[in-house]
Design brief:
It is a single chain. The protein is mainly α. It has a single domain, classed as MetI-like fold, CATH 1.10.3720.10. It has 15 helices and no strands. α9 packs antiparallel against α12. It is globular, with a radius of gyration of 28 Å. 24% of the residues are buried.
């Protein structure tokens, strides 16, 4: 009769003492030196990027005579300068702001939708020529927009669409970078299993895209919209060659037209300065309004 011997059970590791726990906390916690260095870098970068805005704001509060002084201290003419801005040229500046909002919001919205659809299709559908199409899109990302301005003008001139809203809006709805970003994000954030589950439940492809994919791609779509909005809002060269009627100008081209008249109308100097400040406000509002979608999208991704 044979007997079996059991191996002795190894003793349990000792529970971490108070000093061990303290060492672990100190190892994971950031040192005061690194936090001070990070805050110093952030403060320097904030001052670097915000100092031009402060200089612009300070100049917007001064009269034409005070602009000749080198002081950066704000003055008391801000309200009067605003009134001059919106009354100059029968209120044409308000028309320029509305035009810029039309071009930027409409162009960025349509561009985001088209980029999301194209990127999702390139990421989740298998078809002949998919990689060739994606390579062409990458080529569009590398192509500078100024190189396409003259061909676009010739194309729109052939169909008599120059000097219209369409001549600025239609080129703005194409975003090769948005298509690239949508494909990368759709491939990483939209599981194939989720798409198959939707198909098994009887959902159409359009329903799967609008109900599931767009929600998971929300951070990328917000990024595409914001990038395209900023690009269109700051666009200058395309409206310059496409538009002749000042009622169709965006705010960038309108301020340039005032700047070119300073030798004949010196009083426009104040309007140009405060108009530049006002033109920055929509960009700030758009960024502050959309940043919460980034936070929510990152939080949702961390819970998956």
């Amino acid at each position: 009769m044979s007997t079996t011997t059991q191996a002795p059970t190894p003793p349990a590791p000792p529970a971490p003492t108070g000093s061990t726990k303290a060492r672990r906390r100190s190892a994971t916690a950031e040192s005061p030196y690194s936090m001070a260095m990070a805050m110093t870098v952030l403060v320097i970068m904030a001052v670097y990027f915000l100092s031009p805005v402060y200089v612009l704001f300070s100049a917007s509060t001064k009269s034409k005579a005070e602009l000749a002084q080198s002081s950066l201290k704000p003055s008391t003419q801000f309200v009067d300068n605003l009134q001059q801005l919106f009354s100059e040229g029968d209120g044409i500046y308000s028309r320029w702001l509305l035009n810029s909002l039309l071009y930027a919001v409409g162009g960025a919205g349509i561009a985001t939708l088209l980029a999301a659809m194209a990127g999702y299709a390139l990421a989740k559908y298998q078809f002949r020529g998919r990689e060739l199409i994606f390579n062409v899109v990458l080529g569009g990302v590398l192509m500078p927009a100024t190189a396409l301005a003259l061909p676009l003008f010739l194309m729109f001139a052939k169909v008599n669409l120059t000097n219209t809203y369409w001549s600025v809006l239609l080129p703005s709805i194409v975003s090769p970078f948005g298509v690239y970003l949508s494909r990368v994000f759709a491939a990483a954030s939209v599981p194939d299993e989720l798409i198959e589950a939707g198909r098994l439940d009887g959902a159409s492809e359009f329903r799967i895209f609008t109900g599931l994919a767009t929600r998971l791609m929300a951070p990328a779509l917000v990024t595409i919209f914001l990038f395209q909005f900023v690009v269109i809002w700051n666009n200058f060269f395309l409206p310059l060659i496409m538009l002749q009627d000042n009622k169709l100008y965006p705010v960038t081209l309108g301020l340039y037209s005032w700047q070119s008249q300073l030798s004949r109308v010196p009083t426009l100097q104040v309007a140009v300065i405060i108009g530049s400040l006002v033109s920055v406000v929509p960009l700030i509002i758009t960024f502050l309004a959309l940043q919460r979608f980034w936070r929510s999208g990152l939080a949702a991704g961390s819970l998956k």
